[in-house]
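Morning F.,

Quick status update on the modeling queue. The single chain you submitted on Monday has been processed. Sequence for confirmation:
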Amino acid sequence: MVTYGELMCMAVAMIAFPVVMMMAAEEGSASGWIEVKGQRVALKYAFAAMTEDVTERGKEKMEVLLSDKPVPMEMRKATNAWEFWVTEQAQKGELHGIIVYLDADTKVWSRSQRLSRNGMEFYSQSVSPPELNDLVFAPAPAGSGEIAGKVSMKKAMRAVMESEGPWQVEADFRTPVVARPSVTGSFTGAAARDSAPYKAVQAHLLACQKKDLEAIRKTMNPNAQGTLAKFEAARGRKAMLDACAEMATETLKMKLTKVTVRGDTAEVEFSGGDETSSSVQTMPVVLDNGVWKIGQ
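Structure tokens below.
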């Protein structure tokens, strides 16, 4: 099954590789390094934002980016636009670093995404007690709305691709944490089906299923249209439309479970599966000149 998130990441990855009206976070700082196969790069910048933890529904996690290049001011918000930008920059070889996932409650570091020419490489380690974990986060005193501390590894890790490993990171950092916008509406059942965000998603899925490129574009905001155009340029129109159609067909088989609105953004959630396995698909929608459209 091709999910919407996978489709968008695929679109970014093929290139050689919800906008909320709020103040962007100030730039954070880091002091340390990431070393990949003996090549060390200095980490100077930090950015942190809250997001939903897809491995544990209803719970939040903190994503901390440590890099040698700052996130643009306009992207320092609790949306996934900054992650798409980071992935693309890493694949071009123009940004190096790591995204550290911290448990919002315990501040334990057990998962991360290392940035590479292949995009993001996911790593996780979960042991009990946490002191046995090779991924170490030592918190430091921090003010309200910020996070500070040191990340380090007890030993180097192997990379997914032998040509890009082993790797290790060690860095102190301090940065504001961008909170997710407050929920302004939550709908289930008939109310969810009648909601404008869901109708925007439905229009997008039907256009994808029909492989109607012009109709697909009309259902997407400019950022999402740009990602789709990159996918088409890298893979060709037929492959792009086939992937869109596959994603749409699988999503339309799923059950609409919830629509959550956060000001000018919304998340349309579907669920599927059976007693032995289940899956959840969330599609982001944003207001674009007063009209709900698919976003990144």
